[in-house]
Amino acid sequence: MLLAAGSGPSPAPERIRFADITRAAGIHFVHNNGAFGKKYLPETLGPGVALIDYDNDGWQDIFFVNGTKWPGHPGHVSTPVLYHNNHDGTFTDVTKKAGLAIPMYGMGVAAGDFDNDGYDDLFVTAYGQNHLLHNNGNGTFTDVTRQAGLWGPNELSTSAAWLDYDRDGHLDLVVANYVQWSPEKDLYCTMDGTSKSYCTPESYPGTSVRLWHNNGNGTFTEVTKKAGLYDPSSKSLGIAVFDANQDGWPDIAISNDTQPNKLYMNNRNGTFTEQGVPAGVAYSEDGVARAGMGIAAGDFDHSGYPSLLITNFSNQMIGLYHNEHNGLFVDMAPQSEVGRASLLTLGFGCFFFDYDLDGWPDIYVADGHLDPDIERIQQRVRYAEPPHLFHNLDGKGFEDVAAQVGREFDAARVARGAAYGDINNDGAPDIVITTNGGPAQLFLNEGATNHALRIKLAGTKSNRDGIGAVVFVKSGNMAQKQMLRSGSSYLSSSELVLTFGLGSATRAEDVEVHWPSGAVDKLSNVSADQIVTVREGAGIVVRQALEKRH
């Protein structure tokens, strides 16, 4: 049971700060939503961001999705941006050099090695044509969308995630789609009766997510209907891949906007069964389909089963669906700080991560409203909003400590995408966020004193990234487990490395990697404060000490 705010363990130590290093790091990305006054629906949604080590140098680089001008209207043509990590706290824009200066009205991104060549590729969603960008292994990318069989359809795609749903060793792709919108179908909506406002998704028909099966030869086949995922009523914004029932097969949760959320349970034969309503994640506790935005999965109470976090519209509060281990989920947010603190905010990017490395997953939520005029209509709701950082009180509850970890961090903004990763290799997870029509921000985690163990996976029989693998870590009297997953948050992709906070422990007595292939690697007495690469069937093949924290 989650405790009320103020009860239980003390909040996060005030020594931890998230420092805004955006300018010092050389990051100058500004999102172009193409807005020119007509208030087209897609303008409010983007953009996403990915942390990806595209050149395999052991340092996380940053890929920003971007929009562009609308055809025939004022504005400037823009492209996604890739920043290379220089290993010294700074980044260099390598977009043109990498072959990624591709104009598109981009939305989201998922990183993963779809051809198992050892280099992570990028799938970028968009209004119009999505793009599969193959990593050539030499610092450049090639658009292989046509060759891969992914050309068309042209939709308003949002989040995406890589997963090996049939455990054949090749990463498949699930893509969320929002509504059937085009400039020609654009409707006039108004909140005050005098000026146009952005329409809600209720104004447009929904559309189904799509599932693409990896054929193992560089091509994909759409299997949405065959796999049981086809649902044209959906209005999907977020995707979380997780093993809801701990049967070893990846399930798919979809956050929907004004439609019931979906939970597709893997039948282990290439098909899924939708269980959102009977599982209790489709609606709020009072039976209302909320405006689901971002979504994440994590075992926040060390129960051994992952729960779900879904961000919603203002006046709806976040959903924190606790996994009851019997096929049911119970929304714990209304009786906790997570619900009370988020009642008036509109959440987008979200994730579980252990920012203070105490072994308990915390929660980050990026907030920001959709309509610049909302404050004239609802006096208590703001357009730019501060984030939430919910510190995990040893599995007994959460406390929002965003105001305690830095003034810049707690500033109000119109945030959308969010991802986490260790950009300076000191073991403490950092945060990168995007804002709609505004600048991105990079926050460095400073002051964490607990120990960490970072684990990178290299599959052999399984997919090369090890996506879908579950890692168990035991240190002292604490047992943790994490699944390596693609996607989650909102339009974004966090690093493909697992970080385990060990608190004061200086080693993990036991580490087990359960691979999608069914293979298990068992390790013992693994020292903390290092990043290890575990190769399927071979154990630890690379060890690298973490950088000293300042």
List keywords for this structure.
4 helices, disordered N terminus, 8-stranded antiparallel sheet, 550 residues, 4-stranded antiparallel sheet
Secondary structure layout plus pairing:
Blueprint: E1 17-20, E2 49-52, E3 61-64, E4 81-85, E5 91-93, E6 105-112, E7 121-128, E8 131-135, E9 141-143, E10 155-163, E11 172-177, E12 189-190, E13 196-197, E14 210-214, E15 220-222, H1 224-227, E16 236-242, E17 251-256, E18 262-266, E19 272-274, H2 276-279, E20 295-298, E21 307-310, E22 319-323, E23 329-331, H3 337-341, E24 347-353, E25 362-367, H4 374-377, E26 388-392, E27 398-400, E28 415-421, E29 430-435, E30 441-446, E31 451-458, E32 470-475, E33 478-483, E34 498-503, E35 507-514, E36 520-527, E37 530-535, E38 539-545
Parallel strand pairs: 31-37
Antiparallel strand pairs: 1-30, 2-3, 3-4, 4-5, 6-7, 7-8, 7-10, 8-9, 10-11, 11-14, 12-13, 14-15, 16-17, 17-18, 18-19, 20-21, 21-22, 22-23, 24-25, 25-26, 26-27, 28-29, 29-30, 31-34, 32-33, 32-35, 35-36, 37-38
